[in-house]
Design goal:
alpha/beta, 7-stranded mixed β-sheet, 11 strands, 21% strand, globular
């Protein structure tokens, strides 16, 4: 059994995973807590919190470890984590992923950005930043980002045995999904070896960040009459880009025949059209581009296109979607 490097006033070493539905953070939390207890002899607990179980919705997984002699009588969500794992760097657009961290907490991010870029983006004064391209590893190994993130977490949680986690992965997948055992173990090993670290010392005495829990603006006293949903999932104000897990469609204008097969299968009306005359002077609708604000990366359009005018492309963190976005010209939302 490894020795916990630090604990809070209740004797717990706490980990919080921030993710979106579809990336496997719920399973990652279960595997991590199970291996800490069964494989490494610690006392521990793990549970998740989420809203609707669907791709793109926010998910949190909470894991507590402590000495075997310590009783766990606290099952509240973790507010002051020693380690945070952020499964998608687009989460910074919508929630405060690092809320409540200690000055020396470690933040693991699935990203292609550098630790310096992430430090500025997260606006934290000190601590350790760990970065791994879990999405890229998962795409290459044809798995999910969760096992790559687990591999990186085991570099941080050096009191846990990585060989024990490999056994846990085998035990989890071998009965129902035996073909996924070796790819997931390779993904775990790559996450363990490819993560990079950067530590930032506090330049001055830092104040412990307060934990903030998101609360809806509208409550039972201020909700519109009839319980109206003022900002539904298909609202023009929504940003669905956090739902993408690494791939998006790339539009090749020179190949497009404007057949609208892509628009027919798109569940979120991502395609932007304009009316203009064709070569014979007749008015036609021509595909102008893709509004990536509403694209969830389902790639149904790529499969539907008969002329390969849409192709699968990796969404790198260089602002590809922002640079190539063609925005809808809505009367109520123009940005």
């Amino acid at each position: 059994m490894g020795k916990l490097p630090k604990v809070n006033e209740l004797g717990f070493y706490e980990i919080r995973l921030e993710s979106i539905g579809g990336l496997g953070a719920n399973l990652a939390g279960k595997l991590l807590s199970e291996d800490g207890v069964v494989g490494n002899g610690l006392n521990g607990v793990g549970f998740s919190s989420y809203g609707s179980e669907k791709k793109g919705s926010p998910v949190k997984a909470h894991i507590r470890f402590c000495d075997p002699k310590t009783n766990i009588r606290d099952n509240t969500p973790i507010e002051r984590p020693h380690v945070i794992g952020i499964f998608h760097d687009a989460l910074f657009k919508t929630i405060n992923c690092t809320s409540g961290i200690y000055p020396d907490s470690t933040v693991l991010v699935n990203s292609l950005k550098s630790p310096d870029e992430l430090m500025k983006l997260m606006n934290i004064p000190s601590g350790s930043i760990a970065v791994v391209d879990a999405t890229g590893i998962a795409l290459e190994e044809q798995t999910k980002a969760n096992t790559a993130m687990l591999g990186a977490l085991y570099r941080i949680l050096d009191f846990l045995d990585p060989e024990s986690m490999k056994n846990t992965i085998r035990r989890t997948f071998q009965n129902k999904y035996p073909h996924l055992v070796e790819p997931n173990i390779r993904t775990f090993e790559r996450g363990f070896s490819e993560v990079v670290f950067q530590t930032y010392e506090a330049k001055e005495e830092t104040v412990l960040q307060s934990f903030s829990r998101h609360e809806p603006v509208l409550g039972y006293e201020t909700q519109p009459l009839g319980g109206m949903v003022t900002n539904p999932g298909n609202s023009i104000l929504k940003d669905l880009s956090i739902s993408r897990v690494g791939m998006l469609p790339h539009f090749h204008d020179d190949k497009c025949i404007n057949c609208a097969a892509c628009d027919t299968v798109c569940p979120d009306f991502c395609f932007v059209w304009e009316e203009k005359p064709d070569k014979k002077g007749r008015t036609q609708m021509f595909l102008k581009g893709i509004d990536y604000q509403y694209c969830k990366g389902c790639l149904k359009c790529v499969h539907a296109c008969p002329v390969d005018a849409l192709t699968r492309e990796r969404e790198y963190n260089d602002g590809y979607a922002e640079k190539n976005r063609v925005p809808h010209l809505f009367d109520l939302a123009t940005k």
